[in-house]
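Fold sample X.
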Amino acid sequence: MSHEIRTPMNGILGFASLLQEPGLTGEKQQKYLKVIEKSGARMLNIINDIVNISKIESGLVNIHLEETNINKNLENIYNFFKPEAEGKGLGFSINNWLKKEETIIKTDALKTYAILSSLLKNAIKYTDERTIVYGYDNKGDCLDFYVKDTGIGIPKDRQEAIFECFIQADIYDKMAFQGAGLGLSIAKAYVELLGGKIWAESK
């Protein structure tokens, strides 16, 4: 865990020191400031994940069921992630199958948003070409949500482990270590609190 904290902290301290160099051009200043900003955001995300995991493990997370327009929830997620996905040149689409009059379901809207956001962050992070699609299948008495991507894949023997705390798949990719490995474990905990289950499949 200390490695995940030290890495962004080193980015902040190192580039803050570089900003003190005499004769630094405006272009380099902006470049260094962006690294500091990115490192700070990454560190904040890690700390937030640690706080969330601590609350989950302490039994302090409650479920607040309420009537929710699930299509609207998914559209809000789409609008949030669309610029990032398209910035990588990825196709990004959503499948909403329920009719307008059927879109009100009872769930914890914030937890559902957090679960899908975590899955989409992961998909965008590890997908460099083609498409990401997410949505749900109507199973009658429940909805099966999914995120599908054309990313680098996960070894079969690691597909369960990725949902454990501080565990990342054995992926030989430069992005693989840019995080604490907590996002998917938080998503799994939320899914289980909502009475569901989550799994990964990869070809």
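Fold sample Y, listed below.
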Amino acid sequence: SRLLDFYFLSRVSSRTGDKTQFSYSAHTFSEPRFLKFLTAYHQVYPLSQIEIEFLPFAYRFFLLNYVIREGARFFRPDLCAQFRRDTAREHLGSSSRLDLTELLKIVS
């Protein structure tokens, strides 16, 4: 699904960036820059409500695959351990509580 890349795109468009604190938080889905990107994307490649509702699952897949499963390939051991811990303790649980209200407004 094309939505598998949307979390990465939300991170790229994030004002926060990864300059001082590196996190895999889902807050980037609700940042103004990502909402602006999604609005422009939707005008060219229309998205459905079902696709937006799938985003928490795509985010969870990203966390499980990229951070948990493959993290050791991308990060130093100390960072990998920290990111895996943060993912297990915080981010996976928060994926089921994502507020999609603003994203759904874009496609309605």
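Sample Y note: The first helix runs from residue 6 to 12.
Also: The chain has one domain: 2-17+26-107.
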